[in-house]
Inverse folding.
């Protein structure tokens, strides 16, 4: 076993390749090879989780995993596994596995599935690449690759509306990619390769302040697009035309988190909080994040389409991560990183449930939920747990992250954060409680004749089990937040490495 | 002692193949290819290995040596271009072999086609390893003439007119070049590029000579405004021919400009470097905007070549300003990745055209499922054209933008970045067609059958396109070996000509 752990750089590489190779194989499968495709999908997903856990175990035992591929001319592609990378890898890989089960059931009988699952695997490849990126160049490579790999999934249905959403998606993300590219090349041209790690690349810089601010905003601007921050959030609600598994995994976890994760790397690993905490950088970013939090919630209230409402809720919730990152101070950072996981668990649950409602009863609107609590109790329970977590009700995980964000605000002297969080929670309640009320406490109007679509038994289970798992995880992550294996504890370790470097000796 | 004759073999193999192909018959084509493609690849590997081992070298053909005989001059750049030639022409040969359009030709025409095909290949190989201004002229003419005739194999009168126009303008370019060479010979008494660099004393005659050489080569490289011959010729030639013309023959013009302007002409001033850069930038914008406007796929790809060649010319001002290592690596990595990507794009476009009988963008979406593999190849190639990862084009642009940033010339960076976004628009116009739900193909779980009116696409032609596209993507990761190769014999810095030889 030790021999397996001491493979040096090949473990992170195989984490990335496990889904890449699967994806390539799947492209060449015929549509009707359902069994083969499903086996490859699940096999790849299980393998990826297993490799991720192996990586985690190795890192915990003190092994160092760094893979360097020289690209010539002084450039390197670096994959490495630090605790922060591992958190995002395990989140992506774990949720990919769950979503794969869901997607196989969801897409049963629909056309172009080989194409779909091929690109689906490539997307996860890209997001694990982003997680494991050891320097800025590698990050940019996978970040842009993610854009290209996601486009086919957004336009999967091939309808006019889907193609239009795909266009919007490309305009936003390629524009953001351009800013990121300019910022990254500029920075690298000035200081050489920008390597990630606990010691910020710009720790002892003597670059002019104006240049630093310009580069910060170029890179942050590029990341903000995927993180769906106002005013560059417009692609996310339109991208909801994609099939439900895509919305669940990519537009609740992988793509949007890539932006938020990148912001954390930018603030802590490239600039360092001492530098990035300046009002012109972190301060302004925190303001923007607060605006996004409130704006997203207000728009969510105005939407009655379930997926659209969830999308605006994502816009709002993602900026918690940006806020915690930008505030500076260890507690806020812990809140941000914990929310990275917590929000993923809760939001993917909500999207799973929304997809199941749409598939089974053709329900797309909040008002149509009447009586659903009785018809689909398990699904609605999962939905309720996740929604209450979003509002921030203990003991669901969402409470923990909000608590730490609030403490972080107080710790850094930004008391206004408290007001933002309270306002946001009220707004969250305003758009999540009504659907819950309608679903549990109202009877369906007599004229409504709900036709339950008859789905094969395994499809029913495939759509039901994933949300139950993720909702339970969200509950457990909140209940057991004090245990050393919780997302919170892991976030504390990551932050401790950056604020108190001596204590970084593994969990 | 390392054997230096691999370079001569790399030239001889395609030329012998050109002769052998004259014997008509399908089996001749197959047999010749079975020998020539692996042979050329092997010889090229030998050249690359030799350059890695001993660096820049000369090989006296037949043991005679310059000035009496012919010297082959091989450095990292030459070896890289030879390798590119072998890979692109090799894979494109597979495409031609299976191309229904070529197979439909009469037997004698087919053998003529193959012979000319290898002529282009051999002439380019000879050009890349030539260190002599006049030999370069001969190879340039051979490649152009063979190319012109190959264009005329395309469908209908359009191809004929296009090839005539290509012939006229191409001959003008060759004439301009050879006049310049004559003046250079008069001024220095030598045709050897290295000696030329040592003996060149700037004066009116030399300036005129340099201008003539540059205009002649710029025509071949389709530098705006001397590009007008390119879109019709590349847009109407048979797919394989468009592929090697766009990927290789145009690059040959650029290759020679690099040989001259980072070689003997380097002392003639930075003004020309800036001018070449500006024309290149105009080419990027003009070519991209025109590509965006095209309604036919092959014309779109052809205008994209005008744009992509424009990027390469930014090498001159970037190198002149001192960013030469980054710019040199970037520009030549772009040559390699663009050539493979562009060949893939043309082959994919050819597959669609042959199968559907039209390459109008409005029609392609009607059979999106049928064309999915060709469109996949196009999409992969598109990543390089847009300069997005994972692709060699991304890395190349990263290097070139770095060179622009490091030398403080942000406007060249702007050209690279804006050009990339314009490319995204025209690539998007094609790639989106792959996802349209088409009326001809009702969706079904088992995948729709081939819609009526579409011809089947031979698997080999698809594999050739995909293979080239994969190479262009792979160059984004396996870039270290080619970049190391390109550094061998790289002009040390502006002002220093080609490395003096033992």
């Amino acid at each position: 076993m030790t021999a397996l752990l001491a493979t040096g750089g090949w473990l992170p590489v195989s984490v990335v390749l496990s889904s890449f190779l699967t994806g390539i194989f799947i492209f060449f499968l015929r549509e009707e090879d359902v069994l083969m495709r499903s086996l490859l999908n699940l096999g790849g997903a299980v393998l990826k989780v297993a490799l991720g856990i192996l990586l985690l175990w190795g890192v915990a035992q003190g092994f160092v995993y760094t893979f360097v591929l020289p690209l010539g001319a002084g450039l390197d592609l670096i994959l490495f596994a630090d605790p922060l990378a591992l958190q995002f890898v395990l989140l992506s890989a774990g949720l990919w596995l769950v979503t794969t089960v869901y997607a196989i059931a969801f897409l049963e009988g629909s056309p172009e599935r080989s194409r779909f699952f091929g690109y689906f695997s490539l997307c996860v490849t890209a997001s694990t690449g982003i997680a494991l990126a050891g320097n800025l160049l590698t990050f940019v490579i996978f970040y842009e690759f993610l854009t290209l790999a996601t486009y086919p999934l957004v336009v999967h249905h091939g309808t006019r509306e889907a193609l239009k959403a795909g266009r919007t998606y490309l305009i936003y993300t390629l524009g953001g990619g351009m800013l990121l590219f300019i910022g990254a090349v500029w920075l690298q041209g000035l200081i050489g390769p920008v390597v990630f790690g606990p010691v910020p690349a710009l720790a002892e810089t003597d670059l002019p302040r104006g240049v630093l601010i310009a580069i910060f905003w170029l890179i942050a601007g590029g990341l903000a697009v995927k993180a769906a921050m106002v005013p560059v959030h417009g692609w996310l609600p339109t991208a909801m035309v994609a099939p439900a598994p895509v919305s669940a995994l990519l537009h609740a976890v992988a793509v949007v988190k890539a932006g938020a994760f990148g912001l954390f790397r930018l603030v802590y690993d490239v600039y360092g909080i001492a530098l990035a905490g300046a009002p012109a950088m972190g301060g302004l970013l925190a303001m923007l994040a607060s605006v996004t939090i409130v704006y997203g919630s207000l728009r969510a209230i105005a939407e009655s389409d379930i997926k659209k409402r969830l999308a605006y809720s994502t816009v709002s919730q993602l900026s918690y991560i940006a806020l915690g990152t930008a505030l500076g101070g260890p507690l806020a950072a812990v809140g941000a990183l914990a929310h990275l996981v917590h929000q993923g668990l809760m939001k993917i649950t909500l999207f799973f449930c929304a997809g199941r409602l749409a598939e089974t009863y053709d329900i797309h609107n909040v008002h149509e939920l009447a009586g659903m609590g009785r018809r689909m109790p398990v699904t609605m329970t999962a939905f309720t747990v996740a929604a209450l977590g979003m509002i921030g009700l203990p003991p669901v995980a969402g409470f923990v992250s909000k608590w730490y964000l609030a403490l972080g605000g107080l710790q850094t002297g930004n008391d206004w954060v408290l007001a933002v969080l309270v306002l946001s929670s009220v707004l969250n309640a305003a758009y999540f409680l009504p659907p819950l009320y309608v679903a549990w406490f109202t009877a369906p109007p007599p004229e409504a004749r709900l036709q339950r679509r008859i789905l094969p038994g395994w499809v029913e289970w495939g759509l039901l089990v994933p949300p139950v798992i993720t909702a339970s995880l969200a509950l457990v992550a909140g209940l057991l937040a004090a245990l050393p294996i919780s997302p919170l504890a892991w976030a504390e370790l990551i932050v401790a490495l950056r604020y108190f470097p001596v204590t970084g000796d593994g969990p | 002692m390392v054997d230096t004759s691999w370079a001569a073999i790399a030239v001889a193999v395609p030329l012998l193949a050109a002769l052998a192909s004259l014997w008509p018959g399908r089996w001749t084509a197959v047999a010749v290819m079975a020998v020539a493609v692996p042979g050329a690849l092997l010889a090229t590997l030998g050249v690359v290995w030799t350059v890695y081992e001993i660096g820049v070298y000369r090989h006296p053909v037949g043991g005679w040596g310059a000035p009496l005989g012919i010297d082959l001059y091989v450095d990292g750049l030459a070896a890289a271009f030879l390798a590119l030639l072998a890979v692109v022409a090799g894979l494109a040969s597979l495409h031609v072999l299976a191309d229904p359009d070529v197979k439909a030709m009469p037997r004698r025409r087919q053998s003529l086609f193959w012979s000319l095909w290898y002529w282009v290949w051999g002439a380019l190989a000879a050009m890349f390893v030539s260190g002599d201004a006049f030999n370069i002229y001969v190879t340039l003419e051979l490649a152009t003439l063979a190319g012109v005739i190959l264009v005329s194999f395309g469908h209908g009168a359009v191809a004929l007119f296009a090839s005539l126009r290509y012939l006229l303008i191409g001959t003008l370019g060759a004439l301009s070049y050879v006049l310049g060479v004559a003046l250079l010979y008069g001024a220095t008494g030598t045709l050897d590029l290295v000696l030329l660099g040592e003996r060149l004393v700037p004066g009116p005659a030399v300036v005129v000579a340099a201008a003539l050489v540059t205009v002649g080569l710029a025509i071949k490289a389709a530098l705006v405004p001397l590009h007008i011959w390119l879109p019709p010729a590349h847009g109407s030639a048979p797919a394989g021919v468009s592929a090697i013309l766009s990927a290789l023959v145009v690059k040959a013009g650029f290759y020679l400009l690099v040989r001259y302007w980072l070689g003997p002409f380097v002392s003639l001033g930075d003004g020309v470097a800036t001018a070449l850069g500006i024309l290149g930038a105009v080419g990027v914008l003009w070519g991209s905007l025109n590509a965006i406007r095209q309604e036919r796929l092959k014309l779109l790809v052809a205008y994209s070549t005008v744009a992509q060649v424009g990027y390469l010319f930014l090498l001159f001002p970037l190198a002149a300003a001192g960013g030469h290592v980054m710019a040199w690596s970037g520009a030549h990595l772009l040559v390699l990745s663009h050539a493979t990507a562009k060949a893939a794009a043309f082959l994919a476009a050819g597959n669609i055209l042959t199968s559907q009988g039209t390459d109008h963008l409005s029609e392609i979406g009607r059979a999106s499922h049928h064309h999915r593999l060709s469109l996949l190849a196009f999409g992969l190639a598109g990543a390089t054209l847009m300069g997005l990862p994972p692709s060699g084009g991304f890395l190349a642009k990263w290097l070139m933008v770095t060179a622009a940033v490091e030398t403080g010339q942000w406007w060249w960076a702007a050209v690279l970045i804006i050009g990339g976004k314009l490319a995204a628009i025209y690539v998007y116009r094609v790639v989106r067609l792959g996802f349209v739900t088409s009326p001809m193909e009702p969706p079904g779980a088992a995948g729709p059958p081939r819609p009526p009116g579409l011809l089947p696409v031979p698997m080999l032609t698809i594999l050739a396109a995909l293979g080239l596209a994969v190479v262009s993507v792979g160059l984004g990761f396996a870039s270290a070996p080619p970049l190391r190769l390109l550094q061998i014999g790289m002009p040390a810095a502006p002002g220093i000509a080609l490395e003096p030889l033992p």
Summary: The longest strand of chain B covers residues 57-60. The mean pLDDT of chain B is 89. The radius of gyration of chain B is 22 Å.
